[in-house]
Amino acid sequence: MDQLSDITQHLLRFSPDALIVVDANGRIRFANETVTQLFGYALEQLLDKPLETLIPERLRGKHVSHLTAYLSKPGNREMGARIADLYARRSDGSEFAAGIRLAPFKIGEKLFVAAAIRDNTERQQINEALIAAREEADRANRAKSRFLATASHDLRQPIQTIRLLNAAMLKISRPDLRELLQQQERAIEGMTRMLNALLDISRLESGAIEPQVSDVPLTETLHQLTTEFESVAQARGIALRVEPASLIVSTDRTLFYQLLQNLVGNALKYTDQGEVKVSCVTGPAALTITVSDTGIGIPADKLDRIFDEYYQVDTQGAKRMGVGLGLAIVKEVARLLGFTVSISSHVGEGTRAVVSIPNQYLTAIAVGADSTATAEPAGGATRRSRVLLVEDNDGVRLATELFLRFEGFHVESAPSAAEAEVLFEKFQRGDVIVADYHLDGRNTGLELLTRLRQRLGYDVPGVVLSGDLPSVLRSLRTPVPNCRFLSKPVDTSALLDAIDELSVDGGTDRRSAAGGAG
Questions:
Q1: Where's the Response regulatory domain (predicted)?
Q2: With 60 as the cut, is the pLDDT of residue 364 above it?
Q3: For the whole prediction, is pTM greater than 0.85?
């Protein structure tokens, strides 16, 4: 028993923490040897002294109020968890960041408080360094996001020029050069996908995207997927099967399509034979949209990393494609929309991506919906329409004009909104305006289209091109009738289809227009 008592006394005296006991009046009744080492006071200099002796003068007023509040409701407590910038004062007047743990106890009816004190200077310095590093990383990330957002338009312009020139050369080149041009076209397509992915993930990470919820007919989204990817599937010798569905989803139209677009694009990219299938199934709690393929598959030990940014699975020597952002974008978009995405796969058998949409987002079933109701692009129509092209980038304008002329269109072009308005006098019903969205600091292609419609008195057909299409679409308060919005670098087939489709009836009289969505 005596040995235990000795151990207890030595533990109190030489504890790694400075131990102090104060009474209900805040006076020091006990201090161990470690207090002397930490504060520089002899023990007799502290006994019966107020605790304020160990507190910097500038903080003593706050200390009194904190001590009063603590004694009214004592308990085990970490002072530093509630009080910022907690400091103690040494005998020489110097200060140090302190970590203090309080524990109340009673002897008879008298209340005492034990305080364990540590010098937290090193810990504080580490925390400050971590905070500074995090702030610096946040600044760098914001700077990256601002750069990509600002440079988006300029980065897309040269790709747009090359893409259009390549398409024009395919129309006139010798047969022995066509294979080279087709290879070049595939390289341009790959570069476009990578640029789009980098810009998309930047916008998502920056928090700059807020979902704009509207009623989205699933049949339209599925038809759009078919239109975009059918030619890609045919070129790879793969069957693309998109099963019809007539539900309406309450969601952000652009983000929803972007999610499915990435999943279908990814499936086609890693499938060499067989099929890619999109199917929809309603359940008691959710609608599930499944994108399945018969591709190379993903090893089981890699599935938990496939949603990481820039991560690409090494699929048994398969060539590297893209930059590994497609599924990272899918994950972030699904989170924004309130959906979930899961992936299952078997090597050599294929992959299934399942998007689960809770029933709360299903607003209705389209009455009499027909998955084939959307008009097919009039790709085979005779091209007699004229095109008014408005583009402020010289290279893109000349390349677009050259491409459209080789496709059989009569083209009038203008480098600015002001010069385009001079050409309004020549505009006839059946003509189509193709305009860049960002023309200059004062005008947009959509504003130019609106002025032309007001001048002529009918919904002039228009195609608006933008390097930041998601932001443009989210800025629209209402659908724009008789207008198509396409992303830069523009898919040449999509541009031709849009012009052909819009020029069929030449526009709608504003007095009788029902107002279709662009």
A1: 386-503
A2: no
A3: no
Bridge partner list, 118: 99
Q: Quick check: 157 and 393 in contact, CB under 8 A?
A: yes
SS (H, E, C) 269-314: HCCCCCEEEEEEEECCCEEEEEEEECCCCCCHHHHHHCCCCCCCCC
**pLDDT given for residue 515 in this prediction:** 35
Question: d(Cα 443, Cα 449) in Å, to the nearest integer?
Answer: 11
Q: pLDDT band for 187, please (50, 70, 90 cuts).
A: low
Please give the DSSP secondary-structure letter assigned to residue 85: S
pLDDT of the residue at 389: 93
- Cβ-based burial of 81 (10 A; exposed 0-12, middle 13-18, buried ≥19): exposed
Q: Under a CB-based contact definition with an 8 Å cutoff, are residues 374 and 222 in contact?
A: no
Question: What are the beta bridge partners of residue 364?
Answer: 248
Lowest mean pLDDT among 9-23, 35-49, 122-136: 9-23
Which residues of 204-274 form beta strands (DSSP E)? 213-217, 239-242, 247-252
In whole angstroms, what is the distance from residue 369 CA to residue 89 CA? 78
Secondary structure letter of residue 6 according to DSSP = H
Q: Is the pLDDT of residue 371 over 80?
A: no
DSSP states of 98-136: EEEEEEEEEETTEEEEEEEEEE-HHHHHHHHHHHHHHHH
CB 40 within 8 A of CB 90: yes
* Mean pLDDT of the 356-363 span: 89
Cα(114)–Cα(104) distance, rounded to whole angstroms? 6
Q: Is the pLDDT confidence value at 244 over 50?
A: yes
Say whether pLDDT at 327 is over 80: no
Query: What Rg value do the Cα atoms of the chain yield, rounded?
Result: 35
Q: What are phi and psi of 484, to 5 degrees?
A: -120, 140
Q: Which ranges constitute the DSSP H helices of 383-491? A: 394-406, 417-422, 445-456, 469-475
Long-range contacts of 301-305 (CB under 8 A, 24+ apart): 303/343, 303/344, 303/345
Pairwise CA distance, residues 196 & 191, whole Å: 9
